[in-house]
Amino acid sequence: MSEEDREKKKEFVRQYYQANKEKILSNQRDKYANKSKEVKQGYSRSYYDLHKEEICKRSREFYKNRSQEKKQKNVERVRIWREKNRQKARAWSAVGNALVRGDIIKPNVCQVCEVFDQKLHAHHEDYEKPLDVKWLCHVCHMKIHKIKRRTK
Length: 152
Hints:
Shape: extended
Strand order of the largest sheet: 1-2
Strand content: 5-15%
Structural class: mainly alpha
Helix content: 55-70%
Number of strands: 2
């Protein structure tokens, strides 16, 4: 999609939202009204913050109680993937290490849709340049990969 088309689409979406704001919000309220309080809280970041210890404990117990065979299968699966995708794994590690060292600073805004305060993914256009990344929200990142799959 060209930059001009993308801007036209953004403007159309903004206008549509303003014109149908009440209907959209009503549909969202109805969609979540039937869910239990626990389910609603499960999706929120604040729920995790409130119950972090309990969630971490449950996770540790799950992995501790897994059979040795399942643990070994997982280790083997990861090892095989890393061998097949050595360049990707190295690029991801390079980004992680650069973040820890402070060589790269992770923004808090998606570079495509400019959504604020979302968990951002580091997207590599070229794994040969491991520190050349775009910071994208999950939705934009999946759109880019969907387009790449279609073009292959």
